[in-house]
Write the structure tokens for this entry.
Amino acid sequence: MENYSYSAEDKSLLTPLIYKYFVFPLVKILPESIPANIITIFSNSFVVFSFIVAYLNYLHDTYRFLWLIPVFCWTYIVGDYSDGVQARRTKTGSPLGEYFDHFLDSFVTGLLTGILMLCFRVTNPILLFCVYQFLYLGQIGAFWERLKTGVISFAKISTSEGVMTIAISSFLVS
């Protein structure tokens, strides 16, 4: 634990903007007493709220309040970046915290795919199964890379861009 250090190579196009205009200003005003894992839980709850909005629209065959999905997803992204900054700021980063963050990110991946499928009214179970499996295989590959190399890598078009693409396309359905 004493030698633990989170290591990531992030080439994402949105990352510099997210850090500069959202994450660093937010973390500056956050009290140091707020644990990074609370930020993780809080930010992930916004994807749950997005899923609820999509599900209720699907259930009632409407397209109301879908504008909330990009707002909630953006809040999730900012929170997802902020938890790591808060952990480093308070020197409370740990392998368990990293695992917790990535575990919830995996959970969020399923919800985001569900949001997209619900908004587009896709109900083919085989298609749903295949999409979920391919997404999770990609995440397993990223975590395997972290295990073997000690560094997790994010490409230019990465998770942030994917989340916002899903969120905006879900909104545009309306």
